[in-house]
Amino acid sequence: MKAASLADIKRELKQRSPEELLTICLRLGRFKKDNKELLTYLLFEAGNEQSYIKLLKEDIDDMMEEINMSHLYYVKKGLQKIVRSLNKSLRYSGQKQTEVDARLYFCQRIQDSGIAINKHTTIKNLYHREIKRIEKALSSLHEDLQADYQYEIEKL
């Protein structure tokens, strides 16, 4: 089966009643965890972006606590898991300021944790890739916000 274009889907959704839309959304939420997470963000978190950022930071803290620090291999795998989760969560929001805040916090947590960034090439590349993502997202923000965040990036 070939998926319809977004324009076709939008046209069809406009023709449906509110009850049918509710049924469609609930059915969509049953199939994949990602769909359910996106619906959760849109319904509960989208109205208050600051609480969503706080929630992301708490998730980062929880996942950082779970990382096995006995060997750099496990540290690398744990950090990669956090980045995957962070990327998915930031995709739901789509706001650059949220992305900058969350990624900055993640990089600060890496530094505060005492992980030897320069001893493992993959960890070093992961860290630098996150800084590049911050700078890319930062370039699309307002100049005043850029100045505020630039100071934070320099500390990293």
Q: Ranges with pLDDT <50 over ≥5 residues?
A: none
Task: Tell me the β content.
Answer: under 5%
Number of alpha- plus pi-helical segments: 8
User: What is the terminal separation in angstroms?
Assistant: 48 Å
Shape: globular
Report the helical percentage.
over 70%
Question: Structural class of the helices, strands and pairings?
Answer: mainly alpha
Q: Mean pLDDT score, rounded?
A: 88
Largest sheet: none
Query: How many strand elements?
Result: 0
Using only C-alpha atoms, the radius of gyration works out to: 19 Å
Order of helices and strands: HHHHHHHH
What does this structure look like?
The chain has 156 residues and is mainly alpha-helical. The chain is built from eight helices and no strands. The chain has helices at 6-15, 18-31, 33-45, 49-66, 72-93, 96-113, 121-138, 143-155. The chain starts with 5 loop residues before the first helix and ends with a helix. The relative contact order is 0.09.
Quick synopsis:
The chain is mostly helical and 156 residues long. Helices cover 81% and strands 0% of the residues. It has a domain at 48-155.
Please outline the helices and strands.
Elements: H1 6-15, H2 18-31, H3 33-45, H4 49-66, H5 72-93, H6 96-113, H7 121-138, H8 143-155
Any key phrases for this structure?
156 residues, mainly alpha, 0% strand, globular
